[in-house]
Design goal:
2 strands; 3 helices; mainly alpha; 140 residues; 34% helix; two-stranded parallel sheet
């Protein structure tokens, strides 16, 4: 009996098939990320750490600055970086803005009116009685 060929391992959807996936971000997001990374590196450089860590921090700072310069010069990031900067057209709208409804204005609460005395509603009386004065109703 011949030995069976082993089957390839089953694919699991949690893991990507490719070793790296290309991420897409906007130019504004890239600039924001670079700015945050630079400020983080500056904060790390201010800490008292072993020399080898300080050297790594300086190296990372230079790498961040180099990536920024390459992007500013070419408008793109090298393909091996697995990052793509998406530059949307200026007059095109993103799908997220076209599907959003405008925010609803809060409704104004109904204003309450003070109660009106019944005797003020009578129109055929010649004068309004004073609060102390009693009013008698005579039937015709």
């Amino acid at each position: 009996m011949a030995p069976r060929a082993s089957l390839p391992p089953a694919l699991s959807p949690e893991q990507s098939i490719l070793s790296s996936e290309i991420q897409q971000i906007t130019q504004e997001e890239f600039n924001s990320n670079v700015s945050k990374a630079k400020s983080t590196m500056k904060a790390l450089a201010a800490l008292k750490l072993p020399k080898w860590l300080e050297d790594k921090i300086a190296e990372f700072s230079q790498e961040i600055e180099a990536s920024k310069r390459v992007f500013e010069a070419t408008g793109e990031i090298p393909k091996e970086e697995a990052l793509k900067i998406h530059n949307p057209k200026k007059h095109a709208r993103s799908p997220s803005t076209t599907t959003q409804k405008p925010p609803c204005k809060p409704k104004k609460p109904k204003q309450s009116h003070p109660p009106i005395a019944v005797n003020l509603l009578e129109t055929n009386s010649s004068h309004s009685p004073e609060p102390d004065e009693e009013q008698t109703i005579v039937s015709p």
